[in-house]
Design brief:
36% helix, 16 strands, single chain, 427 residues, alpha+beta, four-stranded antiparallel beta sheet, elongated, six-stranded antiparallel β-barrel
């Protein structure tokens, strides 16, 4: 055909695609490229979009990469199925779950009394110095585990060794005076034995003197009869009388000497008792010196862990000074502070379930062992006095002691002071 060709206008769309304008007057015109006048940009999606023809005119565009993408019809998009609304189902599940949780919570609360004001308690023993001196050795470190009677601290013992030697010398001297174990008879006891022997001699002399008195009186009676018969002279009679009087006087003297000897024995026996008392005092001083020497080696009173160590080598310590604390690893219990309004349902022996916060709520078990006779506020440094000033009612808390019946394994030890949550089963 002899029609004049019209160059098809080209335009670049947003996707860098080339769109060919449709020809008019039922003519199909193909615009040949001239000297690269038409630049085709590579499409991003490798698609060529063909605009719909107007007035039944056919328009053709050369496809690229053998792909032609056609826009989906609007009617098909309008007839796409809608997604179901799941919100009512989700709300229903949440309501059911909330109702079940509320029922469980109320049921549990009606059969239990709970408090989070509870902690693990135990025995923390302070280790004190009983004697003063310079510290020569510290055998433990902070948080060390120690056994019963394990060595902790050593104090310089030279002064105490000298005191012990002096006490032992004084004890030996007391034993020499009063006698004692393994030393035989002491000086005081020997004097008692000597006095007892002298008393025995005096008793014998008394017997001799009595015999002489008897003889003298018999001679006097005989001389008196003979003198009456003029067989003996008056001089001989007088001599017999004098002899009888002399023997009686000698008897009195010997008796008094025997009495004095007996009193001397009693005095010596009192001396023995005094010597024995001094011996016992010396023995006590010696034992005390040995005890003071033993105090230079401080040992653990219980097994447990060292806490707050305050002593170092070379430090001068005084009697009664605290050196460290030992947290006992036995005898742990729970102190739970329940409100006074909760005590009505609490009884000794009720089972308790405990949650340990340190181990993500791990469960341990126990039973109520005792309930305090007073509130915790009464044991404070300044107990409240409701009789003075304005009164504000505050719910008081009462300490309840819980004995642990089932703990955790060795990898999760219970430590004094850890927080727990206590649930007491009241039914």
């Amino acid at each position: 055909m002899a029609a004049h060709p019209r160059a098809a206008s080209t335009s670049r769309d947003s996707n860098n695609e080339v769109t060919t304008a449709p020809p008019k007057n039922d003519e199909v015109t193909t615009a040949p490229p001239k000297n690269d006048d038409v630049t085709t940009a590579p499409p991003k999606t490798d698609d060529v979009t063909t605009a719909p023809p107007k007035n039944d005119e056919a328009t053709s565009a050369p496809p690229k990469n053998d792909q032609v993408a056609k826009a989906p019809p609007k009617k098909a998009m309008a007839e796409a199925p809608k997604k179901p609304n799941r919100l009512p189902y989700i709300l229903g599940v949440l309501v059911l779950a909330g109702g079940f949780w509320t029922y469980r919570t109320l049921s549990y609360a009606s059969a239990h009394e709970s408090t989070d004001n509870a902690l693990i308690d135990g025995h923390v023993l302070p280790v004190l110095a009983k004697v003063g001196g310079f510290v020569t050795k510290v055998s433990v470190r902070e948080n060390d585990q120690v056994a019963l009677n394990a060595a902790l601290v050593t104090i310089d013992d030279r002064e105490f060794v000298v005191r012990l030697a002096q006490a032992e010398a004084e004890l030996a001297a007391a034993r020499a005076t009063g006698g004692g174990r393994g030393t035989g008879t002491g000086q005081a006891q020997a004097m008692v034995e000597n006095a007892s022997a002298q008393t025995a001699v005096q008793d014998a002399n008394v017997d001799v003197a009595r015999a002489q008195v008897v003889k003298a009186e018999a001679d006097l009676a005989r001389y008196t009869d003979l003198a009456a018969k003029n067989i003996v002279s008056q001089q001989q009679l007088d001599a017999a009388k004098a002899q009888a009087a002399a023997t009686r006087a000698q008897l009195v003297a010997v008796q008094r000497q025997a009495t004095a000897a007996g009193a001397n024995v009693e005095g010596m026996q009192a001396g023995v008792r005094l010597a024995l008392a001094r011996l016992n005092a010396a023995a006590a001083l010696r034992d005390n010196a040995a005890l003071q020497l033993s105090f230079t080696k401080i040992t653990a009173p219980v097994s447990g862990a060292i806490s707050r160590k305050l002593v170092e080598v070379g430090q001068l310590v005084q009697p009664g000074q605290m050196l460290m604390n030992i947290a006992s690893d036995t005898g742990l219990f729970i102190t739970a502070n329940f409100k006074e309004t909760q005590l009505d349902k609490l009884r000794i022996g009720q089972p308790v379930e405990l949650e340990v916060d340190a181990y993500n709520g791990a469960k341990i078990e126990g039973v109520i062992e005792s309930i305090s006779a007073a509130t915790g506020a009464r044991f404070t440094l300044l107990p409240p006095d409701n009789a003075s000033g304005n009164f504000t009612k505050v719910v008081q808390r009462v300490p309840v002691r819980i004995r642990i019946t089932k703990g955790l394994d060795a990898t999760r030890p219970l430590r004094i002071g850890l927080s727990v949550i206590a649930h007491v089963s009241t039914k």
